[in-house]
Amino acid sequence: MAAVEVSGLTVRYGDLVAVDDVSFSAEAGSITAVLGPNGAGKTSTIEVCEGYRRAAAGSVRVLGLDPSTHQRQLGERIGVMLQEGGVYPSGRVLDTVRHYCALYGKGADPAQLVEQVALTARAKATWRRLSGGERQRLSLALALAARPDVAFLDEPTSGVDVNGRDTIRGIVRTLADTGCAVVLATHELDEAERLADRVVIFDGGHVIADGTLAELRSGYDEIRFRSSPDLDLHALAASIGLVASRVGHDEYVIDAPPHPRLVAQLTTWLAEQGHPLTDLRAGAQRLEDVFRRLTTPDSGDRP
Amino acid sequence: MTRFVSQLRTELQLTLRNGEQLLLTLGIPVLLLVFFSLVDVLPTGTKDPVDFLAPGVLALAVMSTSMVSLGIGTGFERGYHVLKRLGVTPLGRPRLVAAKIASVGVVELVQFAVLVPVAYALGWSPVSPRWGLAVAAVLLGTMAFAGIGLTLAGRLRGEINLAAQNGLYLVLLLLGGMVIPFGKLPSGIRAVAHALPSGALADVLHDTLAKAGTQPGTSWVVLAAWAVMAPAVAAVTFRWD
């Protein structure tokens, strides 16, 4: 049984359908990224899973329980990181973590948690004096105080600097490695690409893709390169037998498997024509490209 | 019990750390009591101003803590999603509400522990005080003001709630028979003042502590009605997020 099972979920705000017939699952010991642009329905879905919000239709099971009727039992076993806030503004870091450790009663050591999220030096600072990244790390520590079986983390690295992101990513990975089912809502594709074992892509309240990174990328091979902005694409196509598309000022894409012979033909042609090669990447598309392809309204790939 | 105690400790820590709330709940009542007892400029109608002011300022202290302090604090906690976050911990909403009520009770005890001796030191001489009834009135007043404070906190945005609570505080203070006797208010406003929770509580405390209530029977009924209605309205209308 999956730790989180969402089936046919619909969430409405008055006449607005925010989430429409969504289904996916998240397994224990893995990180499931719920990905999508702002307003795609990610947070609404997560909030139903946490028990904050009622579903208009469909069913949600977290650890086999319905969050809308078993919020108290689930409260003991789930860790939550809100998209923003959730902490007393005048509460000090260590006091706040100590309070949450007492609320969960799982024996977590407050000082150790503060150290784990790299806030020991700020232990006596109040929340309102923390930077955006420090606030996110404190919020993560509060989720960890639950020693959770399932963790719902909403935009955990939003507004966090590079070092802070690394800290958060390391903690989240460790959390999953210890058997926790981590559900990570984010609109940052890079975040999902680095962390997720499974990706569920939302758009317009629907799930438009669901699978591992490898599954989502399969069939989307390409050769992407940068050169002069004025390449003669007709001449290039005549030379290599494939069409290249301009996707940026000096960036081009050839939708084709990354065969060494094709790469050699391309670089040879560029050299013969006297064009530079400032970047070259061949292989599976980045998640960002898959996402863009799937969420473009006129894309034929969209289900 | 551990969870309740931890939440209560947190509520009290935050109150102690909040200078504005300390000023509101302790500083202003003590200042009003001391200043207007020593400087006889209010039309209290008593030989010694403190005999009128002491019950009124005790009523003011109850209103400051259970309506304004609780309401403003809860409003900002709602705005910062603190209530939402605590709602999915094992604490649960009933224990959270219980901890807030207990926190108000502790602050009121401190207020009374400071204000009553100060009043005595200023020469207050209660007339046949019925402390048991006064405590009952304070409990009803606390329920009524907490209901009003939480109704505003549960519907309005942080800054608007802040302004509304402070504005209401001023109106209820001036019309509530706390520092200005009902008899000195214009006749048209007097009836309204008696129907206010502040007016009812002040009148009942004047009656129980100084035998100086203007219409104590009616004031008990008005106070009890506010104590039932205001929390009921808060329970129905409060938005946790």
Notes on the structure:
The complex is a heterodimer of chains A (303) and B (241). With 303 residues, chain A is an alpha/beta fold. Chain A is 35% helix and 26% strand. Chain A is built from eleven helices and 13 strands. Chain A has helices spanning 42-50, 71-75, 93-104, 110-116, 132-144, 162-177, 189-195, 213-217, 233-240, 260-273, 287-295; strands at residues 4-13, 16-26, 31-35, 57-62, 78-81, 150-154, 181-186, 198-203, 206-211, 221-226, 244-246, 251-254, 279-284. In chain A, the strands form three sheets. In chain A, strands 5-6-7-3-8-9 form a six-stranded mixed sheet, with helices on both faces. In chain A, strands 11-12-10-13 form a four-stranded antiparallel sheet, covered by helices on one side. In chain A, strands 2-1-4 form a three-stranded antiparallel sheet, covered by helices on one side. In chain A, β6, α6 (162-177) and β7 (181-186) form a beta-alpha-beta unit. The two termini of chain A are 27 Å apart. The model of chain A has no long low-confidence stretch (mean pLDDT 90). Chain B has 241 residues and is mostly helical. Chain B has one domain (2-237). Chain B is built from ten helices and no strands. In chain B, α2 packs parallel to α5 (92-121). The longest helix of chain B is centred in the first third of the chain and has 31 residues, at 49-79. The radius of gyration of chain B is 18 Å and the shape is globular. The chains are: A alpha/beta (303), B mainly alpha (241). The interface between A and B is medium-sized, with 28 and 27 residues.
